[in-house]
Amino acid sequence: MFSNNRSPSGYSNYGDSGPKPSSNEDTLKTEKIQIERKTFVFSLKENPRGRFLRITEDVSGRRDTIIIPAPGLIEFKKIVDEMVKVSSEAPEKPS
Q: How distant is the alpha carbon of residue 93 from its chain centre?
């Protein structure tokens, strides 16, 4: 299902149209980390459709969010672990 509420750039205008409708979500756990100028909020939540991890990146008030359904968290972690391993093994290129 696609929303017809799009701006000329192709992005949804949903966030600009006022407050979000209330949802039936329970927060199970939230953690926040600051990395350089970015703040990341990890929230494990649950709603009638199931559990999910919401990761929100905030940079000077601009927010981007991804949601990973709980059944995909193990595979998601596997990929992140592999990226961390490669990043720590590969030397950084000079700036």
A: 28
pLDDT digits (tens, 9 = 90+) for 11-69: 444 444 445 655 799 999 999 999 999 999 999 999 999 999 999 999 999 999 999 99
Whether 25 and 12 have beta carbons less than 8 Å apart is answered as no
Give the separation between CA 79 and CA 83, rounded to whole angstroms. Answer: 6
58 forms beta bridges with 39, 63
Q: How many domains does the chain have?
A: 1
Q: 57 is in which domain, residue-wise?
A: 24-87
Tokens 């968290």: give the residue. Answer: 73
Question: Which phi-psi region, left, alpha or beta, contains residue 48 (left: φ > 0; alpha: ψ -120 to 50)?
Answer: alpha
Enter the pTM of the model. 0.71
Give the CATH number, domain containing residue 81.
3.30.2450.30
CA torsion, points 37, 42, 48, 49, in degrees to nearest 10? 80
